Amino acid sequence: MMSNVCHTQRRLIKQKPSLLACAVMLACGASSVPALADADVQGRITDNRSNLLTGAEVSIPELKLRRTTSADGRFQFNQLPSGTYTLLVNYLGAMPETRVLTVADTTQQLGDIKLLSASDSVEHIEVVGQSGAVSKALNRQRNAGGIVTVASTDEMGQFPDSNVSEALQRLAGLSVERDQGEGRFVRVRGLAPDYNAVTYNGTQLAAPEAGRRAVALDVIPSDLLESVEVSKTLTPDMAAGSLGGTVEIKSLSAFDRSDDFYSVTAEAGYNEQQSKTSPKLSGVFSKILDAGGETDSLGVAIAASYAERKFGSENVETGGSWDFDDGLEEFELRDYSITRERLGLALNMDYRPGSHNEYYLRSLYSRFSDNEQRQALVAELSEPQFAGASGEAALIRSLKQREETQSISAIVLGTKQTHGNWHWQLEAGASKADEDTPFNIASADFEQEFDDGVGFTGEQIIRLNAPAEAYLTEGYALKEVEMGDTYTKETERNIKFDLSREIIQSSGSMTLKAGAKFSQREKEAAEDVWLFEDFEDAGISALSMSDYSNTTVDYGLGTMGGAIDSGSIYRLVSTLSREDYVDEVESRINDYQVDEDISAGYLMAQWERDNWQLISGVRYEHEQRDAAGTRYDDINEVFSENRQKSSKGYWLPAVVGRYDLSENSIVRAAFSTGLVRPNFEQLAPAFILEEDDDELEASFGNPALKALTTNNVDLGIEHYADKLGVLSAMLFYKQIDNFIYEADLAGRGDYADFAKAETYVNGGKADLYGLELNAIHKVSGFGNWLDNLLLSANLTLTDSAADIEWFDDGSIFSREVALPSQSDKTANLSLGYETDTISLRLAANYKSKYLAEVGDVTDAAYDVYSDDHLQLDFTAKWTFQRGMQLYFNVVNLNDEPYYAYTGSKAYNFQYEQYGRTFVLGVQITNW
């Protein structure tokens, strides 16, 4: 029968050659090798309490075959030659298990293989708590073909992290970018979030923010997930889209538990800045049912999470308004009051009518609502001045109020089938994300002029010096109100097919794999802007700030005075006709649509023999892009459509290898290639042409930008302790081509007669290299309280260099900068103490300063840096009854602020403090 199938496939290949067809030919040729296979062997690895063990290594040394158990603890060997063999099971923290295996003509169901603890002090393996979480993650990391870092849902629960982004900051080589003190975007090995991909069970997640591809992971509650796996090396079967790494979010399945499961968590939080209570409630339920005449064949898992967090921050910033010779030109005091709501839902179903067939549905919905009110006092100094001086200035009281809602949804439907040594998977996925900020106050400004007496003191924390009238509402007059309405939507749809065949040989095994994928991505952005001014002409007589203020700003970094009431501003603009105040240019120039179609195929081979494992292959991706935006000629006051199309293909080879020096020591090496497509903001074909003092000026996006591509080299060694622990060191190097930066093209090419022509351009090469060090140790052997300690530390050292250019007086100049968001040092240190009833953990997260943005391409003194950041977090848990825990968390224990500066630390760019957050909660689980 196989020969007939292959004959038909060869006939199809003659009609239309393809990458996938070539792989099928290769596999068919391999099938002509004399058949040795006789039967399948299946089983499941558990502890002696029937808890499923993920990442256990199951091997048959005589055949040089190896399997790693999935989240459901299962393993399967297909079509083994008849004979008697040794089945060996290894799992960190457990005693090795050996069994004699006799293969005959029928499938062998080995059932549950129960492992015993490697510790002398306990009989069972720790699968919950700190040790259990670390054990799960390390076992999956050890047995991976490439270089991966794993955070299981149990490990995420050991820290006071409310979302996926904050959970990942604990892992080696990873750090986060924060918004209002909360982790938001993930950086991998020093590369900015836009250089990393985020997938949900293999489907690329759409990004809700306008202009970006990066997914803000604070949208997704960590309660909804089974694990998060970060792949730092790319293999050909992985979709392109990352330079630093791919963050794979894996959802929970009912088959990941040995029985029906539920967990309920309720907590209340308190933030020092707001002095308000923040509730959270989450739950997980899974059940395995009989279906289709099969026992335990249908699994249903449901998860839900709701959280409301009330918090705030206090800020003072200059925005880089420094003249280093004469002083500061402008600064701003800000007070934020924020309410964030997170709602997360997940429904996952698995149908397994037999050991060779699987059908699955994965779904996710997450909504993030951010209600933010910002009171500000802006000081516009007539002349630049240094601290301690005073002079003439305009003071502006400003209000921003908006409710922004982001949502991400994803659905994946697929099947996995096994026929002998043939495996195939067909999967369709879709993801949608949007960001909606309906009619909101972008700024409501009241202004007052002072002839003298306005200045400032301080460096990092700048404090306003002004007459007493500056803090009263009566002297401020309404200047203008800007309102906005924005909406962004992104959709991603894909379908993929993977086919593989394992060939068992006396010297080892070879797995040939091929696949194809087609995806469509669409990004739309729309914005409307209204500028309300000249209120007297509209018959508005209430122009004093006192008419719009009824409270005082509670500002901890100084005095701000009365607060602007947002309700009064909304009532004001509601009396005016919106059509009369439309800012047509701003409303149309920020609208765009970008469509991308990507077709991909790959060939890959995985070879295992003795202590060697080698993965090699190539991926090809072809993209077609259609970008549409608006061009505005301010000189002639004319709008026109600006549309551009492009088409490009990329070859992405990779070789990934590992060698087991011993049972516990592994050497890893890899060469891989990757690419990241430009941001939508950079690609958007918006174009503004203006004339200022008879000089032409332009600013525009660049749809002709090339994708960033990278060559990656990794080399490292890992040593795992028998009981629990790891020591590892990983060297990595990345050479990045077509680095993108903002530049002024005035004086060159089509812009030779322009005074300014700002856009995005591709640079040359950028280099990134570094070293990851990771150590985890479960203390044992003392026979006292010390055996309850768990130590964890990691350190990533990184350096980078990229050249940026500019044109001046007919000559090209350049200078070297670090890659944005790249910290030289990223580190984590945690100390855990755990007994059967008490669990304590103190964690420190550190990242050194990094380049936040290039302030002036021509002058390094205006580059903006985010300062060093060290944050301490603490969590305590008390198990007062089996399956019932009371916990207490302190986030930002040391009250670490955020500080950014221009050039050197003496020149404030932004200072912001968030206070501590305290959380008290209870969790009930049917372990």
From TrEMBL:
Entry keyword annotation includes Signal: yes
Topology of this chain in the membrane: Multi-pass membrane protein
Entries under InterPro entries matching the protein: Beta-barrel_TonB, Beta-barrel_TonB_sf, CarboxyPept-like_regulatory, Plug_dom, Plug_dom_sf, TonB-dep_rcpt-like, TonB_rcpt_bac
PROSITE patterns: TONB_DEPENDENT_REC_3
Record-linked Gene3D superfamilies: Carboxypeptidase-like, regulatory domain, TonB-dependent receptor, beta-barrel domain, TonB-dependent receptor, plug domain
Span of domain TonB-dependent receptor-like beta-barrel: 436-893
Subcellular location(s) per record: Cell outer membrane
Keywords: Cell outer membrane, Membrane, Receptor, Signal, TonB box, Transmembrane, Transmembrane beta strand, Transport
Signal peptide: 1-37
SUPFAM superfamilies hit by this protein: Carboxypeptidase regulatory domain-like (SSF49464), Porins (SSF56935)
Domain TonB-dependent receptor plug as annotated: residue spans: 141-246
Homology family: Belongs to the TonB-dependent receptor family.
NCBIfam families, per database record: TonB-Xanth-Caul
UniProt-recorded name of the protein: TonB-dependent receptor
